[in-house]
Design goal:
Layout lengths: L2 H15 L4 H7 L4 H25 L5 H27 L2 H21 L1
Helix pairs in contact: 1-5, 2-3, 2-5
Length: 113
């Protein structure tokens, strides 16, 4: 089974339990890696404000939430920087396979937690 089918199947199973990550759809399709990456960045950037509005509207922002945000922002920023650096340096096929591995790990952790 090729990695496109495996990622697609995993994404469809995750969707049943939690919201799916659009990266599985963007990176799973044909096309240049730069275009897929741009599509993923745009989609996630559009989704984050909607999620925040929902969380705020439902009153789910607590002191613990803000502490977690402060702790996770540096990790998120480092991951973003590392991903951008690897995207520029690594060959497209290797970067693509690494993205699939990360998406599978995210899917498994979403099912586990």
């Amino acid at each position: 089974m090729d990695c496109h089918r495996l990622t697609g199947r995993l994404a469809s199973r995750i969707r049943r339990y939690r919201r799916s990550h659009p990266g599985a759809l963007f990176y799973g399709g044909p096309g240049e890696a730069a275009v897929q990456r741009a599509n993923n960045i745009i989609a996630v950037s559009a989704l984050v404000p909607m999620v925040l509005v929902t969380i705020i509207y439902n009153g789910n922002i607590t002191e613990l939430t803000l502490i977690r945000v402060l702790l996770l922002i540096p990790i998120y920023m480092f991951g973003t920087w590392l991903g951008a650096r690897c995207f520029k340096k690594a060959p497209a096929q290797i970067f693509r396979k690494a993205v699939f591995v990360l998406l599978i790990a995210i899917g498994i952790s979403a099912l586990a937690f």
